[in-house]
Amino acid sequence: MIKKGRIQKLIGVIGIILVAVIIGMLTYLGDYYHADKTAHDALISDSQVTVEEKGNLIIFTPTQGQTDIGFVFYPGGKVEVSAYAPLMHLLAEKGMTTVIVKMPFNLAVFNINGADAAMEALPEVSKWIIGGHSLGGAIASDYAAENEEKVSGLVLLGAYPNKDLSQTKITVLSLYGSEDHILNRTAFEAAKTKMPADTTFYEIIGGNHGNFGNYGEQKGDGVSTISAADQQSITCERIVEKEMAEIRK
Prior knowledge:
Keywords: Hydrolase, Membrane, Transmembrane, Transmembrane helix. This protein is an alpha/beta fold. It has helices at residues 4-30, 37-41, 85-93, 115-121, 135-146, 185-190, 228-248, and strands spanning 49-54, 57-62, 69-74, 97-101, 127-133, 153-157, 171-177, 200-204.
């Protein structure tokens, strides 16, 4: 029979362990990459794009020449969502309504179906592209795999799918930087079998992992030889050229 004193000591030890685990988790979740000034400036409406927040969505709406095509975006893991405002602003300037989905603890895995809120908030958009960066891209591909009837296109930025999309009719565009040292190249190559045969792969020469957003240097990433603005401009051009063109057919 265990003595009362030992039980109390055991409970005390368990309590200490739980507190340590909770502190560790909160520290991990609270440590993330913050959006820079360029990103915050892109959250301001101008003559070409109106920016507004609705619940957990940041919506970028073209002021003119708007199409019925929308792009819903999942941010990279532990990156402040507003870091992707410059890219979304660029796409909106091209006539595409864009939406960034805010994620609990800046981790898309906690809001896999976040795209549903965007689609509900913008019923006037009839065709949707979903995309994401890094972890956000992987989770966006999970959504696409489970909601083929809702999604016309998928854009992966420094990312690869978890689930098999090879038999779907979804138009897939995969963009990655030549200097990306975060992307697992072995897993990336293996995941190509999960993508449709007509998937477009585009390597951005000089680009790295972090320059798809504006949140500073990412630990472990390669050194880019082009600016974040240039990498995002190329990304925008490829999305418009591939995704918008295909969906318009």
